[in-house]
Design goal:
Cytochrome Bc1 Complex, Chain D, domain 2, single chain, about 45% helix, mainly alpha
């Protein structure tokens, strides 16, 4: 009898232990390695949404959910920026080949997903926009006049801020944006923030390619050569510095 009772207790104990042993997770519940992630939404959320906004707009960085921008910037442009970043700006390199975390395949998934979701093939039908890139330098003196015509009503006569928009010549802003970034902003605008594109600054008077280049040259000329100042060095024992 004693042996039967002991055997029964052992079976009960074994059953309780077995109930507390975690089962092997199902395949779909296993966590993927970061470089194995291939879902666009997850890749965009983790790598892009913090700057470009959760739905591709209304973030601190230029909108990607913008059919005008996507009609001007081809896939290779977006891929190059995502891969290598833009030196001197907050846009970091995301590809492993440039020190980031994403594989080339993941970069391609982002580029293709952005195009598939937010591009409109006929976004610029009937319009002849200024070229997205140009090797020709604008003229800052002419740019001051073009700025007065197209931009001053919002940004103020000197670009330091007006009734509808903030300063466009702020030193911190200009230190963080490239000349190409300025060009993109002038052409594409930020419609979700009320910033018109090159067609709508002045009703019925789109900016010409030359005027865009000249305004960019004028804005770039306002950039502080060495933004920020170092803390003053303490005086030496002899009073010199």
């Amino acid at each position: 009898m004693r042996s039967l009772i002991v055997s029964a207790l052992l079976l009960v104990v074994a059953g309780l232990v077995a109930c507390n042993v975690p089962s092997r997770p199902k395949m779909e519940s296993e966590v993927l390695a970061p470089d194995q992630l291939t879902d666009f939404d997850a890749l965009y959320t983790h790598n892009c949404s913090g700057c470009h906004g959760g739905d591709g707009r209304r973030g601190p960085a230029p909108a990607l959910h913008d059919s005008t921008y996507l009609a001007l910037a081809d896939d290779e442009t977006i891929r190059r920026v995502a891969t290598n970043g833009v030196p001197g700006t907050p846009m970091a390199a995301f590809a492993q080949s440039a020190g980031g975390l994403l594989t080339d395949q993941q970069i391609d998934i982002l580029v293709e997903g952005i195009r598939a979701r937010w591009a409109k093939p006929n976004a610029l039908a009937g319009f002849h926009p200024p070229p997205y890139f140009t090797q020709e330098k604008g003229d800052a003196a002419r740019g001051a006049g073009a700025f007065a015509v197209y931009c001053a009503s919002c940004h103020g006569p000197n670009g330091a801020g007006g009734p509808k928009a903030s300063s466009i010549v702020d030193g911190s802003f200009l230190a963080l944006v490239s000349d190409q970034g300025l060009r993109t902003a002038v052409i594409v605008g930020r419609p979700e923030l009320g910033f018109p594109d090159w067609r709508n600054d002045v009703a019925g008077k789109p900016m010409s390619a030359q005027e865009v280049s000249d305004v960019v040259a004028w804005l770039a000329a306002q950039r502080t050569k060495f933004p920020g100042q170092a803390y003053p060095a303490p005086p030496t024992a002899g009073g010199s510095r």
